[in-house]
Amino acid sequence: MVTVLDTVGGVKPRHPEKAHRPDQPIARKPDWIRVKAPGSPVYNETREIVRENKLVTVCEEAGCPNIGECWSKKHATFMIMGDTCTRACAFCNVKTGVPGALDAGEPDSVAIAVEKLGLSHVVITSVDRDDLDDGGADHFARVIGAIRARSPRTTIEILTPDFLRKPGALETVVAAKPDVFNHNLETVPSKYLKVRPGARYFHSIRLLQKVKELDPGMFTKSGIMVGLGEERNEVLQLMDDLRSAEVDFLTIGQYLQPTRKHHEVISFVTPEAFKAYETIAYAKGFLMVSSSPLTRSSHHAGEDFARLRAARAAAGR
């Protein structure tokens, strides 16, 4: 395992802000969180396309456990605006620090990769770019436009930062007309100070609500991790908060600790408890719910989007 203190050839550690934190024990994963190691021919083909176009994927940067499955289906989630985040969330394995300048050629590079992979649905996410006046909103819009130009039939799902204190940023992204606007709450409000200190829970709720005000037809989505010490009643209240913002799709997955310097896993939530959360969330009015130990925001995103559209049609919304 590579820790936040490891360096290779003089390269700076991924998480300098965590270097002096005490080590946290890494709990043994239960049997229901076992995944196969990647390495199929299609997986290798996907990796080559990502490398050829010099792209960054959240699949790799965040250490997603589903990378083998997704890349073997040519499903990759592209992470734009570099590999370095200006935030320092306690759960996240993406590198933190001072980011470089935006790559003006990145929108075309992403669009070329989407075309080569033949994606019918693509997920685009990003690092937080608090250093930019618009938080990277215009870059998001350019990426969406480039994909539309090359692959007009591809549906586009974006997973955005919170654009905290970035006036006009949300409007720019919504005007680019992604098919799904996703912004993750990540955890319940009582855990924000420790888990997501750079963010504000009710700002994120308001962001999702405003998407619907700007474009009532746009699908909205949000996700959380469990196993961080949250209480069940807090998760249920979070569901109500999201429904008050008319969010359509909720994802719930198990938090997995990237290194000993990250937030520890407080509990491994059982598959039965995930199923109970799913049942309750549907009863509260979500059109789509994905709740399982290995659920991640972009896992099965294409199939879920088809189901989401069908659920809206059936509900007459």
Automatic annotation (TrEMBL):
GO CC list: cytoplasm
Chain residues that bind [4Fe-4S] cluster 1: 59, 64, 70, 298
Localization terms from the record: Cytoplasm
UniProt cross-references to CDD domains, sorted A to Z: Radical_SAM (cd01335)
Keyword S-adenosyl-L-methionine appears in the UniProt entry: yes
Protein name: Lipoyl synthase
Species assigned in the record: Prosthecodimorpha hirschii
Family: Belongs to the radical SAM superfamily. Lipoyl synthase family.
Record field: catalytic activity: [[Fe-S] cluster scaffold protein carrying a second [4Fe-4S](2+) cluster] + N(6)-octanoyl-L-lysyl-[protein] + 2 oxidized [2Fe-2S]-[ferredoxin] + 2 S-adenosyl-L-methionine + 4 H(+) = [[Fe-S] cluster scaffold protein] + N(6)-[(R)-dihydrolipoyl]-L-lysyl-[protein] + 4 Fe(3+) + 2 hydrogen sulfide + 2 5'-deoxyadenosine + 2 L-methionine + 2 reduced [2Fe-2S]-[ferredoxin]
